Q: What sequence folds into this?
């Protein structure tokens, strides 16, 4: 396959106090999120001056890719578009059309399947192309990378580094706790062609990271940042409830590793570094949060490898686990959940 552009597709985040409410309106339009939950999340952003870290992280990733892609022999102009904030994907795709781009390869900032992490980004791309019209570039999305060494190894090294900060790591008293963004159980059930792709992939990543970081330690997979109305079931247990259960079982030391994320999004720096850390403090647990891949050189190289794979079918497809990945998701693989009143 021949490509003439690289496109980074991400979530987007507010860049100042006045952006917070319009951003949250973009994220939650038509999704039935209770007003109280929105007010709470707006407060989380305000703790950081209304600035999400995600846009700066994407700029840094682009800067790293601008150096690394040419070194990997891939000379493509780089573009960036978001779902929920500037630069909006539709404006970026219009710019690509104006620049004469015909076929772009897209890296989406999530490793996993599910509507929120994959299907919705595919919809965003389709909508942006439809808005731009018939001469919009064709856009292919790169595959899921939940078990790629460029994703797993940085997470594993970060867990080792976090363990080293704990005063004690006796196996009987120490637990690795992996987290990912919770989603409605109905969304997980319809993730991927056979269902439960999201929780299956996240569990596979946790297994690989845990095994590489500390084979002697037990690990658990739990969920964070639950949203939505209380009567809708989401993946459980919540990380805070789980820390309580661990403390009651005699665990004294925990490393929390957010394998569900590629960089320290607001959910990581608020929901873990603040809320979960506070929960641990109250329970008297020693707590360390492991870093995310961010611009680890192995992660940046992974993106180059994924592009290389798509250009050259003979290139190796690195994978450490056994949950399969593919280049093109089947049609309607991760459908939008049914909304209240729809
Ligand atoms: C699976 C998943 C990922 C990981 C995959 C991926 O990375 O895409 C993710 C990432 C992110 N989620 C983010 C922010 C938000 N997510 C929300 C709401 C929701 N997330 C959901 C799921 C996910 N979300 C779901 C099912 C909802 C309910 C509403 C809906 O069905 O869409 C809300 C509304 C308020 C709330 O209720 O929390 C906000 C503000 C940010 C930006 C953070 C920053 O600024 O650094 C990022 C990277
Ligand atoms: Fe989210």
A:
């Amino acid at each position: 396959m021949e490509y003439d552009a690289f496109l980074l597709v991400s979530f987007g985040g507010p860049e100042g106090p006045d952006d917070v409410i319009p951003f949250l309106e973009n994220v939650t339009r038509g999704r039935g999120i209770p007003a109280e939950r929105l007010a709470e999340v707006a407060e989380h952003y305000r703790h950081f001056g209304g600035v999400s870290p995600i846009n700066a992280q994407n700029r840094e990733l682009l800067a790293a890719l601008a150096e690394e892609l040419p070194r990997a022999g891939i000379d493509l102009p780089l573009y960036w578009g978001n779902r929920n904030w500037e630069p909006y994907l539709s404006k970026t795709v219009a710019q690509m059309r104006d620049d004469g781009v015909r076929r772009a390869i897209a890296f989406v900032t999530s490793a996993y399947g599910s509507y929120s992490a994959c299907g919705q980004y595919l919809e965003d791309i389709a909508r942006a192309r439809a808005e731009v019209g018939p001469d919009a570039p064709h856009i292919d999305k790169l595959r899921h990378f939940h078990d790629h060494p460029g994703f797993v190894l940085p997470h594993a090294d970060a867990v080792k580094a976090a363990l080293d900060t704990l005063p004690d790591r006796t196996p009987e008293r120490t637990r690795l706790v992996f987290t990912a963004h919770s989603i409605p159980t109905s969304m997980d059930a319809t993730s991927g062609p056979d269902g439960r792709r999201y929780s299956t992939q996240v569990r596979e990543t946790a297994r690989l990271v845990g095994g590489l970081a500390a084979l002697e330690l037990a690990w658990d997979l739990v969920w964070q940042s639950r949203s939505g109305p209380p009567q809708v079931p989401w993946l459980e247990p919540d990380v805070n409830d789980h820390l309580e259960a661990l403390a009651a079982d005699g665990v004294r030391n925990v490393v929390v590793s957010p394998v569900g994320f590629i960089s320290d999004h607001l959910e990581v720096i608020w929901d873990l570094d603040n809320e979960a850390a506070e929960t641990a403090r109250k329970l008297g647990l020693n707590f360390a949060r492991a870093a995310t891949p961010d611009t680890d050189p192995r992660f940046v190289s992974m993106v180059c490898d994924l592009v290389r794979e798509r250009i050259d079918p003979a290139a190796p497809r690195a994978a450490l686990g056994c949950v399969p990945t593919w280049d093109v998701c089947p049609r309607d693989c991760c459908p939008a959940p049914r909304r209240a009143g729809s």
About this structure: The radius of gyration is 20 Å. Residues 149-289 form a domain with the Rossmann fold fold (CATH 3.40.50.1400).
